[in-house]
Amino acid sequence: MIHAQHISYSVGGRTLLQPQTVRVRAGELVALAGANGAGKSTLLKLLSRDLTPSSGTIQLNRQDLSRYSARDLAKCRAVLSQHHTLTFPFSVYELVMMGRYPHFDHQPTGQDLAVVDHVLEQTGLAQMTHRSVLSLSGGEQQRVFLAKVMAQLIDYHELMHPDSDILTPKFLLLDEPTTGLDLYYQHALLQQARQLTRQGYGVITILHDLNLIMQYADQVLLLHQGQSLAFGTPAAALTPSSIRQAFGLDVQIIDQPTLDYPIVIPATRQPHYQALTA
Questions:
Q1: 216 pLDDT exceeds 80?
Q2: Contact present, 32 and 43 (Cβ < 8 Å)
């Protein structure tokens, strides 16, 4: 479990995140939602150890996050960033293999090769392994980086025993992962994330599309100007009132008999624009 207690973050005299207590259990997909500047990325960076909280503590699997070595942390926590910078023409296979670096010292073993082959199949990249990542579209590159972080977390035991529980709880943090993806691959990525939760992984993801949150998330934390507005199941937390407070937009929540989740429909009147913090 990731357990953050009363964490906050301030920089340059500005408080970007008010004290928050967050628990994410293995087997859950937790979405972070809110307008631009609400504190979503700040919270995700704190939970990933990219930032150090100004106050509070964060534990991963009952150990203080700051006490993990970089290598041990990489084996149980992976982050898919929103922006990627590449200057060398690595092939798809080479980049995905980089996800295995925490697992070997000099040369990848047969187990590492098997994990990479597995995630390439799972992400639909098996037919483009020799292509330069720089030659791919933005959406294709996003899939390659997803495969890389999956290769970082998955171990060989999981391939050999797919129906057994994972040995150590692991967590995947996704920063706006559907950016640049077409409709098919948005759902393919989130279905892959849901599959990981069924295997015992915890997933934390920033999502802007409230309907994707309704469909895929187990829990959602709705933020506004660095403060928590609501936390709970999507149907309970994403109400017309909370959505209006977070986004300045009137919506309708519609239950569809053929679906097991409600749909968020914006109202036809103009949205109420509001000042947002960075």
A1: yes
A2: yes
